[in-house]
Write a structure and sequence with these properties.
about 35% strand; alpha+beta; Lipocalin; 9-stranded antiparallel beta sheet; 6 helices; about 250 residues; 2 domains
Length: about 250
């Protein structure tokens, strides 16, 4: 019976690792102009080892205005392992499906199908970087999309607990500072307590800043995707494709 439950737990763990949602910053440029928005990309690993890439409710946002494009879903993408990451590449037409964001009334993507799309993505269980180029010849528009994000579950969840702890310690410092202003002979002890709390706050803020940096693209961790990594991996993948076509 114990072996049975161990097997069930192992299977459940394996299934839990087949899908990951990356949250981060999406930069969208239309003919070289545009801006940034938060976005989520879902990556699912299929039973045959291929991946399904999903960018849902993709929209072109300009200030308070948004033009809905739709869902970009690429099933059965083969992954190439390189330099500690897995990489996917797509160069073909894609049929964009309507999104389901209730704040957007119209989705133009389905009316433009099929849409020429080039995609290169590189990722591990914690971070993902994606470059997408969409050519809308009928609208005389070239759309360039850049995404850098993290998988919060793998990276350690959101920052709410960390921010709450910082706020709690800052409250303690404020209280002790008030006592210090009125203290007599125990000022040194109180000052040491304040200094210790401030050191804890500094360390937590450094950790918080590191999390926000990796979330919004200024990635500075050892396992982060850099532009040099992407360039090098693109060359490797291009070479693999060229060899396969000969």
């Amino acid at each position: 019976m114990k072996k049975f439950f161990t097997l069930v737990a192992a299977v459940a763990c394996a299934l839990a690792m087949t899908a990951a949602q990356y949250t981060g910053q999406l930069t969208v440029l239309v003919n070289g102009e545009g801006g940034q928005q938060e976005a989520q990309i879902m990556l699912e690993q299929n039973e045959d080892g291929t991946y399904t890439f999903s960018l849902k409710n993709f929209a072109l946002k300009f200030g308070d205005n948004a033009v809905g494009v739709g869902n970009i879903i690429l099933p059965n993408q083969e992954g190439f392992a390189s330099y500690g990451y897995t990489n996917i590449m797509y160069v073909d037409n894609v049929n964009i499906t309507p999104g389901d964001d209730p704040n957007i009334e119209t989705w133009i993507g389905p009316d433009l199908n099929p849409v020429p799309l080039n995609l290169f993505g590189t990722f591990n269980d914690q971070v993902m970087s994606v470059n997408i180029t969409i050519s809308l010849a009928i609208m005389q528009q070239n759309i360039n999309v850049y995404f850098t994000g993290i998988n919060p579950e793998a990276i350690g969840g959101d920052t709410s607990e960390l921010e709450a702890r910082i706020s709690e310690l800052e409250g303690q410092v404020s209280t002790l500072q008030g006592q210090l202003d009125q203290a007599g002979t125990d000022k040194e002890t109180l000052q040491n307590q304040i200094d210790d709390l401030n050191n804890q706050i500094t360390a937590l803020k450094t950790e918080l800043e590191g999390y926000k940096n990796i979330k919004y693209g200024d990635v500075n961790k050892d396992n982060a995707v850099t532009s040099a990594d992407i360039s090098e991996v693109v060359n490797v993948i291009a070479g693999l494709h060229n060899e396969g076509g000969e």
